Automatic annotation (TrEMBL), chain A:
<dbReference type="InterPro" id="IPR036856">
    <property type="entry name" value="Ald_Oxase/Xan_DH_a/b_sf"/>
</dbReference>
<dbReference type="GO" id="GO:0005506">
    <property type="term" value="F:iron ion binding"/>
</dbReference>
<dbReference type="InterPro" id="IPR046867">
    <property type="entry name" value="AldOxase/xan_DH_MoCoBD2"/>
</dbReference>
<keyword id="KW-0560">Oxidoreductase</keyword>
<dbReference type="InterPro" id="IPR008274">
    <property type="entry name" value="AldOxase/xan_DH_MoCoBD1"/>
</dbReference>
<dbReference type="InterPro" id="IPR000674">
    <property type="entry name" value="Ald_Oxase/Xan_DH_a/b"/>
</dbReference>
<protein>
    <submittedName>
        <fullName>Dehydrogenase</fullName>
        <ecNumber>1.17.1.4</ecNumber>
    </submittedName>
</protein>
<dbReference type="GO" id="GO:0004854">
    <property type="term" value="F:xanthine dehydrogenase activity"/>
</dbReference>
<dbReference type="Pfam" id="PF01315">
    <property type="entry name" value="Ald_Xan_dh_C"/>
</dbReference>
UniProtKB/TrEMBL annotation, chain B:
<protein>
    <submittedName>
        <fullName>Oxidoreductase</fullName>
        <ecNumber>1.17.1.4</ecNumber>
    </submittedName>
</protein>
<dbReference type="InterPro" id="IPR002346">
    <property type="entry name" value="Mopterin_DH_FAD-bd"/>
</dbReference>
<dbReference type="GO" id="GO:0004854">
    <property type="term" value="F:xanthine dehydrogenase activity"/>
</dbReference>
<dbReference type="InterPro" id="IPR036318">
    <property type="entry name" value="FAD-bd_PCMH-like_sf"/>
</dbReference>
<dbReference type="InterPro" id="IPR005107">
    <property type="entry name" value="CO_DH_flav_C"/>
</dbReference>
<dbReference type="InterPro" id="IPR051312">
    <property type="entry name" value="Diverse_Substr_Oxidored"/>
</dbReference>
<keyword id="KW-0285">Flavoprotein</keyword>
<dbReference type="GO" id="GO:0071949">
    <property type="term" value="F:FAD binding"/>
</dbReference>
<dbReference type="Pfam" id="PF00941">
    <property type="entry name" value="FAD_binding_5"/>
</dbReference>
Amino acid sequence: MATQISTSAGRDRFVGGALSRVDGPAKVTGLAKYAGEFSAENLAHGYVVSSTVAKGRITAIDVSAAEAVPGVLKVITHQNRPSVAGEAKAYQDMVAPPGLPFRPLYDETIVFSGQPVALVVAEEFETARHAASLVTVTYEEDTPQTDIAAIADEAYDPPKKRSGIKPPPKPWGDAGAAFDGAPIKLRQQYRIAHEHHNPMEPQASTVIVEDDGTYTVYDKIQGVANTQLYLTNAFGLKPEQVRCLSPYMGGGFGGALRPQYQLFLAMLAAQDLNRSVRVVLTRDQMWSFTYRPGAIQTVSLGTDGSGKLQAIRHDAVHGTSTYEDYQENIVNWSGILYACDNVELTYRLAKLDTPTPGDMRAPGAVTGIFALETAMDELACATGIDPIQLRLINYTETDPVEEKPFGSKALKSCFEQGAERFGWSKRSPEPRSMRDGRELVGWGMATGIWESLMMQSSARATLTADGRLEVGNSTADIGTGTYTILTQIAADALGLPMDHVTTKLGDTNLAQAPVAGGSWTAASSGTAVMKACRKVAEQAFKLARGMDGSPLANVDFERVVFANGRIEVAGDASRSVALTDVLKAAGKDKIEATESASPDKDFKKKYEAYTHSAVFAEVKIDEDLGIVRVTRVVSAIAAGKILNTKTARSQIMGAVVMGIGSALHEESVLDHRLGRFMNRNLGEYHVPAHADVHDIDVIFVEEEDKANPLGVKGVGEIGIVGTAAAIGNAIHHATGKRIRELPITVDKILAA
Amino acid sequence: MNRFDYVRADTVADAIKALGGDPNARFIAGGTNLVDLMKYNVEKPGRLVDITRLPLKSIEEHAGGLRIGALVSNADLAYDERIQARYPLLASAILAGASAQLRNAASTGGNLNQRTRCYYFYDEGTPCNKREPGSGCPAIGGVNRIHAILGASESCIATNPSDMCVALAALEATVQVSGPEGDRAIAFADYHRLPGDDPSKDNTIKPGEIVVSVDLPPTDYGQHHTYLKLRDRLSYAFALVSVAAALELDGQTVKTARLALGGVAHKPWRNLEAEALLQGKSATRESFKAAADLVLREAKPQSENGFKIELARRAIVRGLEQAAAGTPQSQSDKRIQ
């Protein structure tokens, strides 16, 4: 059993604390370098020319004016590019959905607006940018289709399923008949807008050509192994020829899970010119790949006066590209969150002339839970049952789909503690019944759920003669605090102070680890680091026990603790050896171990693993003008052991802010005639400003989970799930108006 | 962004000379709009004339009012004690816009000349009559939720994005310009223009001319003013609708009213008829509704922005209520008063 790998080698001193980020000083002083900031001798700069049409073909490209600009090295197009892999399958990265990936500058075909059509490479960035404005491209245009509503009828069940994404379960019971027979029925359509990730840091790659002909690649990626795989396949390179690094990231949110075209173009140019090349996308170009697909959903709920659900039906359609079938889990939650005997869930895709959508923080759950939890609120109104009570009536301790208990599910505690903190009992249930001057006050709540996952991951730990420890693997800290929690775990495991431990991440030379996504990094890399440290501890102990006159002679490993840089007999600090002395006596300059951690198969056989939340929101809305303020959010989270209450709280707060954006602001607007996103900048694509964010109160409820030895379930995504529904429900409570389409903007409030 | 020449001028005369009647040259002060437009290839100046050293950075007494140098930053203007005491409407409007950083950089003259936020104008991959005369207006029938409801044409439905200018319109400021042919004064109402069939021109400044100051006439509205800005988030967004209102009251009777709207037209929108209608009326919701109806009588919705007509109607009523009550909208507390 994995649980045997306990922290017996050390004491919990840092794990569970509220520690500041270990990478904080580097980030705020500018020492932390990002993919587009690394330099090299003779670095050339690439600037991407983007397609202005969404569908069609290039009939001519005139690069003569651009090439005539002094300082321009080359303009690379599909017509003159070096040879690359022809098979689209060679471009499939680790998280590619089924289909044939987009191949940059492959041929004259245009499949989305903003598609790269040329790369201008110059001595200086400014020269490349100027020359790029001189490239003229002529297109033969076809009519694009980017309107999901227009082709929802043509939607299909994706023939090939995406790895890691469960298709909807087979229906159980008879949802249709049960719904028809239910005394109280609710059937509504819900929509969310297309959203783009919009991290602060744009997508960027720096490809450095080393003297020995190998490449060092700094890429903005949530897992350098994916960059390496992509480059080796697309360019026919061997892994040892391409070292990939991504030490820091200015926000990932899923947008940097897949290698993007700037990486391909930078490598293409580096090979073509045999010199180092950097390509950074503009903010505008951040709308030319991956987005959270807007979806059209219908939720049908049937119940009687008791509130017990008799039927759940949840149907969802969203767009994908013409070349890949991106899939996310939108509807399955409706089968897992509540106990119901008659459930039918469907999920279909429709092909749009856009880039392939992709994972964006809690992909699918943000979408599906908005619909389900809004519908539940509507049902609470219809039955006159308190929204929390309605959820308790339908509470389930087992996963109805897999028919297995949850490894842990402290959702009831989330309801209790969240409601208590929020003051839910003082809520007057009637809509429009609470007011503060000219403002209507609304209180709403919703449930959140996300998977608790662990992926196979390895880590290396190295204890050096100076008593310092280095741990790490190739996963990324996408801004979540991974450096910090791994340092905490390692420091505790070997009884060292935090500043004696260095964590290294984001380098293919480090131990192998998966991409950072799905909220699985704490469990996966955390367990691997713990195991590697444990191995180092065991080796150190063996050496210590063998020292001449060792005070640890005849003591078992289970009887010692690692503390203050020493190995001590538990309960007898007088019998101890300093780690530095152990290495010195053994004549070693280091003790090193690489260990791999995998999900516990026995646990997975018996249990299902999810994180849960209860989100409470207060809104105040000017009655005449419809302007909404989200004045309070309480988010009560059940996510197992919290490794660092400070960074975890930041995760939840950030996710709540993103949830506010999803509820009220975020929308990438398409002109369907042009097949083009039109608000491609942060002035016109609105995310919450500080003024939109008020009190956010985060509660971590006690939850003991045994899926992994750390007891950790992941906190990167759960904080956003349900937030938009809670806000929408609060808006209904304030105004009596039910807005079923996100974002809830003033026009929709006035019209309702 | 293209390559360009850069020259710096030290006097107004030098600046005018440096521009040299070159239609492809541009003055640059704060650059908060021009540089963005250059990054989007909307503006491709061959030469930039840096005017930041011109002696136009003071606020001085002038004819009973104040003369604001064209290079006074938006932040310095908003926080000037005389402006706060005598023209709080202007201070409030400025603080309703942009961010602290942008207000620090942006100049008074530049604010007057900032260009529309129409998506198509910014996107060189699409047609736009303002950017490329004669190419068409895809905003009509396209993505136009933020576009004009008043004074638009078949050629252009863009709006002026300025907050400051809405207040200046209500205050009946005068724009002083200087050019190769000498100095002239332009009444604020005549400074910006409607698109008509030539939307490429935002204003009536002639080629080669430079804004040197903005003159504010004396006013007497006391605390009876407001700048109410409604937008898609509570800060750092352009107005869907904004209202600058100032009232001179005699007890509960309106002596004079000033009312200007932002976010609804190609220029700050005033309707003198509506202001006249309020004159002599009692400062009640009914009077304000009547004025709002009059302002919006000619309003015409596009495919996505019909809501702005009703939103503007309500905003006018609320703005006038705030002005009448002497409770101007706070720009730091986002609760609408």
